[in-house]
Amino acid sequence: MMTPRPPSDAGLGYAWAEFGRLDDDGTARFFVCGLGVSARRGSGTSAVTTWHLITHLRPGRDLKLSTADRPLDHKELKKVPGVTVPDSAARYRTRVASELFGLGSDAYDNLTELLKQLRKPKLGERLNPTSLAETLRAALPPLATAEITQLADGWDNLEKLRTAVDQTRSAAVRLAAFVRTGWTPWARTVVRHRADALTAATTELDRTTKDRRAAETALTTARGEADKLDKDISRARTHRGDLGTELRELLDSQAFQDAVSAASRVEGLREQLDALTGQLVGVEDRHAVAAEDMVEVAESEANAASAAEQAEADVVRASERVQAAGRPAGLHQSAARHLPARDVPALRADLLVRRERFTRLQRLRAEFDRAESNAARSADLLADRESDLNEATEQRELARDGVETAVDTLRRQPQEWNASVVLAQADERTVESWCDLVAELTAVDPAGAPAEQRGISPAAAVARHVEGVRDTLRSRRAALVHEHGALVAEHEQVTAELAGVLDQTERPPTPPGSWRRRDRPEPDSRLGAPFWRCVQPVDELSMDKVDLLEATLAAAGVLDAWLSADGELITLEGGEQADTVVRAGGSRVDVSLTQILEPTPVGGVTQTAIHAVLTSIGWHDSRPDGDAAGTWLAADGTWRCAALSGRAEVARPASYLGATARESARQREVDRLRTRLAALEQSTSAIEARIGELDDDLRRLAEESGRLPGERVVTDAVTTMRERERQAADSERKAVSARNTHRASESARDTAWADFSAYAGEHAFPLADLALHDVALRDYHQAVDEMARRKELLDLRTATLTRARTDLAGAQRRLAGVDAELHDLRARKRKAEVRLRTAEEALTSDVHAQLNRRAELDRLVEQVDRELEELGKRLAGALVTVTRAEETLDRHEERRQSAERRRDAALSVWWEVYDAGLAQPLGLEEPERRSVESARESTRAARRELPDPGDEDRAWRLCYSKLEALRQDMLPDRDARVQEPEQDGAIQRPVRCRGVSTRELMLRSAA
Fold first, then answer.
1. Number of structural domains the chain divides into
2. Which of 217, 535, 806, 968 fits a disulfide with 597 by CB distance 3.0 to 4.6 angstroms?
3. Contact assessment for residue 352 and residue 785, using Cβ atoms and an 8 Å cutoff
4. Hey, is 24 helix, strand or coil?
5. What is the pLDDT of residues 123-159, one digit of tens each?
6. Are residues 978 and 991 in contact, defined by beta-carbon separation less than 8 angstroms?
């Protein structure tokens, strides 16, 4: 990607290579490596700056290397997520080698260096097979096991293809069985399911249509009820207005106002009496509660006094228990000092100090027990180590005797083996050196290296001698094989060249090697032909002159120049093509090539065009005087073409000018190739015979090397002796270590006992029965805790008694105050009763009538208001019913439309049964017209003719499994896949077998 800006003094661009592959799960993976270049003219620094990039993003899709109208620079590229910019070329090569090629950096460098070496010119002249093999082995990764397995599988498939011919006869029977047992059950299941689905959809549509009609009826009824309630509400509101007018008139009259005033006086006195009665009841209740409280407080005070006495007795008993537990625990002095004052914290502090000292004593005892146990174990270990030392010493002596016997036996074996072999036989001096190495096997190397690594192994020396002989034979064979391979390759090349020459009636000149020429059209294309095809020598021209003429035409570049059908330049899209072209538009000369060459129209080139070319090239007996201009050729081999001039000599007989010359050249090439093939076959046979002799020698040498004397007996004996010596030394070290350990264990045991006894005597602890002393301490601790709990309970009981006595005095004061308040309220109530009786006697019958009418009007107004409220609720309910009926109608309409769509979808799916060709093989005739009624009739026929449907997926899996089995039998090397349906419920079908479609399988089954 280069900068799209016009040329300037600065430039920036990228070049990259993108690699892609598919994982086993089908996921696409990409690897992109690239180079960024920045150049600036006259900047005073390096003219070109480069950097590398590595990413898994695809440029142009996932990665944008340009923003707006310019590419990203080096710093901006580093900030792009997912892009790595190595800081050196070495790290870039390491990443590319690891992630792209799976090689190490060294192997990758070797590979690139190998490519450079192999691309050097004239490599074959100085190629060293040995160094080339080593370079290839170091640079190239090992051959993948998967590729080897794939190649082996390919050879196995050849045998399968050979047996496929025999399987063709049974293919028809297997295909028919598949249709009967796999395809037909699946098709029946699919057709029956589609029929059931269409029947269910039609039934659902009928049901939703009935529900919609019922909803329309309910909506009409609800709207009539709402209209009736609206009229009732209007009448009730009129009646409510009349009652309100009458009530306002009554309230405005003077008689009603006087009656109300008298009634209000009576009502006020009654309310005052009721208030006094309520207050009196409340005071009486308070008096009863105060009396009950005083009784309860008195009982509480008596109970608190009794509990305080009991708590005091419990504290005394707990103190006596502490005094009794103090002597076994060694704390009797502390108990005598702190019990009189009941100082529980002091008792606990002394107990804590005693417990800490006892814990220290227990640790010292545990240390003594461990030391005593260690001493006993070390004594047992010392006895075991001394026993092991004695046994290891005996085994060491036996191993030394075995080494001497094995050495004597191995000294005789090299001499016996050398006397029995032919190809690998050595001289006596070499055999003596082998025997001398036997003694070196028993020597001890200071570094601990085995004899093989020190180079003193007799078996290794004999093997090196045999390997030297084998290398000599192999070198001879490798040279012969290399020579044989070169001869075979040359034989194949010559055979191919001979076949090509025999297949072709003529051979064109060799294409240019220093420049690339276009692919010329075939002769039958009638788009032109080379010059040598378009001419032939005149009959009176001798062969020697023809040979020189062809050489001169070739030197001048005319012989193989292209002549188009119209004699003009060959252009493509406005430009010339890469080729040497001779044009027919030159000026005519007096003496031209027409004197020695005749036109032969070919490839669409007319005789006129050829003649025009011949007449534009001059012909002379020798170089003309004055070196005439233009294009000309001479009989002495000189020529001129524009500014170029030269002279040609004959290098070979003419091979292109005229049919006779071309056939003669063809026969010469055939004879040369056949002679070379005979010589190659003779050389190949001789080399194969020599290779066979060397193979026989290598096999005999392998048999002789299989009888090499082995030094395993000596090395095993020496290894056993070294192991026995090591075991003896190790046993001796372990015995010395066990003695030192036992002495240290005994010293640690005595020290631990001294520390334990001294500490126990210092703090008056027993030396034995520490567990009994621990139990005594726990008993003392429990006694102190019990005394603390009893003391806390005594303090609580004393505080409770004080609060009870205070509460009793307060209850007595509250009862006296309630008695005084009760006497005052009773006197006030008697006065209010007398005043009320006097006011009631003053009321007349007219006052009662006015008041009763007001009450009646209020009752009627309230009754009408209740009726209006009830009617309003009923109207609201009716309107809600109307709304719900409308919603129900809309819902049923939506369901009906949805059911109709499902019916239409099921109908479309049902016709797919006929379109897919599933119904006809099952005996179901397709209706003449496709309508709802015809679909119902066809589904009833399908439900009547076909059995109850099973699981469609199970039927499909059975069909597909049988199809897979059929494919494995008939087409084991081809794959099939199942086209996933674009929508739920579509018919699943195998759509492709590689090379054979499912339709072809069905047609073969029908056949």
1. 3
2. 535
3. no
4. coil
5. 555 556 665 666 556 555 555 566 667 767 776 777 6
6. yes
- For residue range 312-360, what is the model confidence (pLDDT) as tens digits? 888 888 888 888 877 777 777 888 888 887 788 888 888 788 788 888 8
Residue 688, token pair as written in the block: 């194969």
659-706 vs 458-503: helix axis angle to the nearest 10?
160
CB 413 within 8 A of CB 709: yes
DSSP 524-565: GG-SEEEHHHHEEE-TTS-HHHHHHHHHHHHHHT-TT-EEET
Q: In the chain, count of helices (H) and strands (E)?
A: 22, 18
Best CA proximity match to 342, nearest among 751, 734, 730, 790 = 790
Q: Are strands 989-993 and 562-564 parallel, antiparallel or unpaired?
A: unpaired
Find tokens 């046994």 and name the residue.
391
What's the token pair of residue 222? 């609800």
Residues 666 and 56: their CA atoms lie apart, in Å, by: 57
- Rounded Cα distance between 317 and 315, Å, is 6
Backbone angles phi, psi at 659, to 5 degrees: -65, -35
Give residue 827's domain range. Answer: 262-339+771-841
Whether 44 has a pLDDT exceeding 60, the answer reads no
383: closest CA among 748, 738, 744, 749? Answer: 738
Q: Look at residue 965 and tell me if it is in a domain.
A: no
Which pLDDT score is estimated for 993?
37
Q: Taking the chain, what is the end-to-end CA distance rounded to the nearest angstrom?
A: 60
* Confidence tier at 531 by pLDDT (50, 70, 90): confident
User: 1003: pLDDT confidence band, cut at 50, 70 and 90?
Assistant: very low
Q: Residue 264: its pLDDT value, please? A: 74
Three-state SS at 81: coil
DSSP 8-state class, residue 125: G
Element (H, E) at 66: strand 66-67
Residue 329 inside a domain? The answer is yes
Helix 932-945 and helix 845-915: axis angle, to 10°? Answer: 70
DSSP state of 21: E
CB 535 within 8 A of CB 598: yes
Residue 808 lies in a domain: yes
User: According to the 3-state scheme, what is the secondary structure of 836-886?
Assistant: HHHHHHCCCHHHHHHHHHHHHHHHHHHHHHHHHHHHHHHHHHHHHHHHHHH
Q: Region 839-858: what's the mean pLDDT?
A: 69
**CATH number, position 294:** 1.10.287.620
**Higher pLDDT, residue 124 or 804:** 804
For 935-957, what is the mean pLDDT? 79
Instruction: Enter the tokens of residue 289.
Output: 């509660």
> How many of the other CB atoms lie within 10 Å of CB of 967?
20
**CA-based Rg of the chain, rounded to a whole angstrom?**
63
- What is the token pair recorded at 457? 């192994």
- Tokens 């597909």 belong to residue: 960
pLDDT grade, residue 18 (50/70/90)?
Answer: very high
- Identify the DSSP state of 491: H
SS3 readout for 286-355: HHHHHHHHHHHHHHHHHHHHHHHHHHHHHHHHHHHHHHHHHCCCCCHHHHHHHCCCCCHHHHHHHHHHHH
Structure-block tokens of residue 637: 């081999």
| Measured distance CA(930)–CA(201) in Å, rounded | 17
How does the average pLDDT of the chain come out, rounded? 79
Phi, psi angle pair for 671, to nearest 5°: -65, -40
pLDDT at 996: 41
CA distance 830 to 834: 7
Boundary of a domain, candidates 784, 817, 841: 841
| Backbone angles phi and psi of 766, in degrees to 5 | -75, 150
Does the residue 796 lie in any domain?
yes
Mean pLDDT of 578-594: 81
Question: Of the candidates 657, 680, 708, which is a domain's last residue?
Answer: 657
Which amino acid, residue 684? Answer: T
